[in-house]
Amino acid sequence: MNTFRSDLRPLLFDGAPWYASLKAGHADTFGLWRVTKSPEEAYWAHLLSLAASFAQRHGLLEPYRIRIAGIPLQALTHSSAQREHRASTDQLWDVTNELIVAAYLERLLGWTYLQHEPQGRASHRGEWEFRTPSGRVVFVEVKSLHESEEVPRGVYSRGVQRDRIHAVLKGAYQQLPNDDRATLVVLVGRGELPRISHGILYGDIFQSLFGQMQVRFPVGVDVEEARVRVTPSFRDMFVQRAKHRRLGVIAGLALGGLELPLARFYAIHNPYAHENCRLPASDFADIHQFVVDAAGAAAQVNGLSLEDAWARIDAWEAPASATGTAVPNLVIGGPSQDVADRIEDRSGPPPEGK
Predict the structure, then answer these.
(1) Residues 200, 266 contacting (CB under 8 angstroms)
(2) How far, in Å, CA of 185 to CA of 173, rounded?
(3) Within 10 A of 10 (CB to CB), how many other CB atoms are there?
(4) Which of 45, 99, 145, 277 is 20 to 30 A (C-alpha) from 8?
(5) Mean pLDDT for each consecutive 10-residue tract of the chain (354 residues)?
(6) Which of 95, 134, 91, 140 has the alpha carbon at shortest distance from 113?
(7) Spatial CA neighbour of 279 closest among 267, 288, 295, 287
(8) Is the backbone of residue 305 left (phi > 0), alpha (psi -120 to 50) or beta?
C-alpha cells in the first residue's frame, strides 16, 4: 500500500490555527471539516493525501503548510462562500491543486520533478519545472477554476464559459517564458468547467481556445445527402498565429470521484505555438489528448480509463508491470490548410516576442 493511501491530510493542515477546533457539528465550517478531517472514505481525502505525499517526498511540506495556515478561517466558511458565489474551500484547493497536478505529472505521466517555482517571464514564477520522458524541460503553470457550490434550479442550458476561462488563461500566460523550455498550463477544477463528458472537443476549455463547436451543412439541399460537419467556429479564439504563441499545451484536470478519485486528466496541444514551447504527444502517453500532426490532421487520442489512471498512481512506487494505451509519437504541427485559410486573413505575422 502506498503512503498516500493512508490519511496524510494532517501533514498539510494541522499547522493551521483553525484546524484543531474544527468539528462536524458546526454548520458554517462543516465543508471545511469534511474536506480536511472527516474520516469518511472519499475521493478528496485520497487526493489531498496524494498531495501531501508529493510534498513530503520532495521536501515541500513547510512552504505549503505556511500558505495553508495563512488562509483565514472566515474565508473558508459557508456564509462567506454564499455571499461571494463560490465554494467554501476554494482557497484551500487553490493551494493543494498545485501539488495534485505535480503528483499526476510524476506518477501518471512518468515526468521527473526538477524544481518548485521556476523563473518564468520577467519577474514571474511558475509552479513547477519537470523533465518529460522525451527529455524536454517543461515550465508548468497551474490555475484553479472556481465554481459556486449552489446547484441551479429549474430547466436551463449551461453555455460555454469562454470569458471565464479566457480570463484565467490570460493570467497564466503572463507567467510563461519564451526560452528553450516547453510550456504547460493546467486548469484544475471540481465543477463543470474542466469536464469532457462528450470528448475534449465539446468541453469548455477546447471551445474557449478555438471557438464554439458548430454544426454546418449546405442550405437548400437534401438533408439526407448533405455533408454535415461539426467544427469549431474559429471565432474569438484564444490561440492563433498572432497571439498566445508561448502557450504550448493546455491541460485540464477535472477532479471528482466517489470513494476513490476518478479524475480526468487530458491535454490539448496548441498547433499555433512556437516550436520551442511544444511537446510531443508521447510525453502525454495514457491520457486523453487532442493532437495535430505534421500534415495538419487533428484528432482526439484516447488514454486510460479513470479507474486505470488512478490504479497507476496507486501503484506508482511498485515496479511497472502494465503497459498503457499506445500513443503515436506525433509531431505537433500547424493547423490544416482549411483552418489556416480561415485565420490568415485576420491574423498576419505574430508580433515580436508574443
Answers:
(1) yes
(2) 8
(3) 13
(4) 145
(5) 73 97 95 96 96 96 98 96 92 98 97 97 94 98 85 58 90 95 97 90 93 72 64 82 94 95 97 96 96 87 96 75 38 37 34 42
(6) 140
(7) 267
(8) beta
